[in-house]
Amino acid sequence: MCAKRLGKTTREGRRPPITNTRRVAPGITRFDIEERRTHGYMVRIARQGLRHQKFFSDMKYGGMKKSRAAAVAQYLTWSRELPQRLSTKDRLTSRNQTGRVGVYLAVSRDRAGDVHEAYCASWTDEVGQRHKINFSLQRYGKKNAWQLACLARERMTTNRTYLLSILEKQSTEKKSRKNK
Fold first, then answer.
1. For the domain that residue 55 is a member of, what is the CATH number?
2. Count of domains forming the chain
3. Rounded to whole angstroms, how far apart are CA atoms 161 and 163?
4. CB 136 within 8 A of CB 130
5. What is the mean pLDDT of residues 133-147?
């Protein structure tokens, strides 16, 4: 006779429920919780900060196949009826401290203990590859490092000579306007 190994007990002496959850499709999760005799599919979708969810029990819908079909139908209905998902690209979040999307101040310390600060620009291209470029405050000055990082993010390029030429053009145009 083979003995089954049971899960560890909690401090109160109860065993945690044996839960088996897995994602079966976008927005649809399969739940099998033996202890509570809960079996079915959960549909979840979020749009514009509102979350919608509904559980489709195997028992209520007459089996796994029928409950899954009902869950898929609900997901498709919500996908058509609810507004499209808003893109988070170029959206300012509460974590941003510079006020410019994709530009941040990086502070690092070397082995000697010296602190180095740089404005960094980062973005993701059409293929999904991440790019990043840093501009040292010590080398470029705070104002120029900020402007270069903003330009790099705006143009989505890591070509320093190109960015420096644009910055130089902009500064000469400003000087010529002041002289007029």
1. 3.30.160
2. 2
3. 5
4. no
5. 95
